[in-house]
Amino acid sequence: MDENLLQDLVSAALKAGADAAEAVGAERQSLSISVRMGKLEEVEREEARDLGLRVFIGKRQASVSGSDLSAAARARLVERAVAMARLAPEEPYAGLAPSEILSRGPWPELDLFDPTEPTAAELEDQALAAESTALATPGVTNSEGGSAGWSSSAWRLVTSNGFSGPHAASGFSISASVVAGDENGMERGGEGRSQRWQADLPTPEAIGAEAGKRAVSRLGARKIASTTAPVIFENRLAMSLIGPMLGAIAGPAIARGASFLKDRLGEQIFPAGFVVAEDPHRRRGLGSSPFDDEGVANHARNLIDDGVLTTWLLNCSSAKQLGLTTTGHASRGLAGSPGVSTTNLTVRPGTLDQAGLMRDAGEGLLVTSMFGPSLNPHTGDWSVGVSGFWFEKGEMAYPVTEITVAGNLVDIYQRLVAGSDLEIRGASNSPSLLVDALAIAGR
């Protein structure tokens, strides 16, 4: 996005009566291909250029966005934003990030942009290869489809107090989902991967083979009786167990008092040795960024260090409300006030692989799929529908389905054991996680 255009937009807002302003520009291109049963099913192409403007008049603020970049449309955008701000209620904690904490660069080279632009035919070949490999798996009887995609995005933030910073990234993805069947029924399984650079993706054949394997492994899934037993959350989804913690330490939730961890800063909430690390500057990371969405410097830190909760996730407004300083976790779209989010999260691995965790636990449940989570944000009471595998004497016994596991996250977090099977698959990654006992609702 042209920096001069954004600077002009901010200047126009100040001339129209705003005390402060920030403009965001975003450009995106994407191409995705879907196939099913060896035939092309869908082609989607997107090209977009958008503007966002947020203005402040005293403690009043308003934001607007649009996709028309013409001079006349920009003038209307400014006029509308300033008029809305004059009528808005006062927000005592609203405002731009103070200039003294803005990230001025030079910013780290994060290697997030791969200039490769695959053709539709190349993406179709990848989708077909993933699907055909999955379909070739003995026991697979049908396909839900294969897909491949590419995207390229560029984003820039300009503020009236002197910040101007760009951020560009690319994305490549391949996935496949198939159905396995026998005389007892059907089960689905899938696999998908996304990377910043095309060369970092697994081959389509590897993705298809894993999709087929996962579908077939589910055949013969049965219900089990309700019980209490050890539960292991597979590394592919184990961060879903940590996710509620992130909401509970978000500054806006803490400021509202709507958090089951609101009084736990600086306390031991996980076992000794447990670490949840964040690194916004990981090279080629799916969650990487050189600065946060208010232009504030971000940096690596341990959110959980030796089991202790070390920080809230703060943007400028929630930090002001709590009498603290922003932690560089602001996140925003084109319009609206910033929220908060994390970047690249990693649960540090332990010493036992998944098989070792099962041997230690003896008998219990290995969760490989989760759906329909429910959380009471004030108490931490949590439940989720799951499927996976029952294990006995430390060995896989049979697949299971139609199960719910439940507990209180404050209690669960204190008893987590991290495995050693960490695999970097996305922006948030964890090894398998063992809880020594959870309530399991079955038939």
Automatic annotation (TrEMBL):
Q: Which GO terms describe its cellular component?
A: cytosol
Q: Name one GO molecular function term.
A: metallopeptidase activity
What family does the entry list? Belongs to the peptidase U62 family.
Species of origin reads Phenylobacterium montanum
Which InterPro entries has this protein been placed in?
Metalloprtase-TldD/E_C (IPR045569), Metalloprtase-TldD/E_cen_dom (IPR045570), Metalloprtase-TldD/E_N (IPR002510), PmbA (IPR047657), TldD/PmbA_N (IPR035068), TldD/PmbA_sf (IPR036059)
Q: Where is the Metalloprotease TldD/E C-terminal domain?
A: 227-442
Report the residue ranges that make up the Metalloprotease TldD/E central domain in this protein. 114-219
Q: What is this protein called?
A: TldD/PmbA family protein
Lineage of origin = Bacteria, Pseudomonadati, Pseudomonadota, Alphaproteobacteria, Caulobacterales
Q: Which residues form the Metalloprotease TldD/E N-terminal domain?
A: 21-85
A biological process (GO) of this protein is:
proteolysis
Lineage top rank: taxon: Bacteria
